[in-house]
Design brief:
It is built from four helices and no strands. Helix 1 packs antiparallel against helix 4, helix 2 packs antiparallel against helix 3 and helix 2 packs parallel to helix 4. It starts with a helix and ends in a 6-residue tail after the last helix. The longest helix has 40 residues. 80% of the residues lie in helices and 0% in strands. It is an all-alpha fold. The radius of gyration is 19 Å and the shape is flat.
Length: 128
């Protein structure tokens, strides 16, 4: 149900803001870049659990740096015409990308757990 709601909101926003298409696409792309890179950094903590806090702080500062530098660049070059459209697109798509990344991570974790159970039930390894 959440996927349908997010999809409807994204489509409606695209329809409502067709007049300010540049502002909408810049907000959308900046959200994808900032959230995507910060999640990539944050998920590296899974491989090295002793540095979890360092990775999470680095991810937050990276997202802020990308967002601030993107906003400064956009406004200094007069790329967008509607700051409200940019703000709404950035906010909605930031939430959407965050939701999709967390759902993807949960899906991968569930799939890994099910594969682990299959290996344990085949008798290749003793159950601890």
């Amino acid at each position: 149900m959440k996927k349908i709601i997010f999809s409807i909101i994204a489509i409606l926003l695209a329809i409502f803001f067709t007049e300010h298409f540049h502002s909408f696409t810049v907000g959308f792309s900046l959200a994808i870049i900032a959230v995507g890179i910060s999640y990539f950094i944050a998920y590296q903590a899974i491989r090295q659990p002793q540095y979890v806090m360092s990775y999470l702080v680095l991810a937050v500062f990276t997202k802020l740096a990308i967002t601030i530098s993107g906003v400064i660049w956009v406004f200094s070059n007069n790329v967008i015409h509607s700051p409200i459209t940019f703000l709404v697109a950035y906010t909605v798509f930031s939430a959407l990308i965050t939701y999709l990344a967390s759902r993807y991570r949960a899906y991968r974790r569930d799939r890994s757990d099910s594969q682990q159970k299959e290996i344990l039930h085949t008798g290749l390894y003793e159950q601890v």
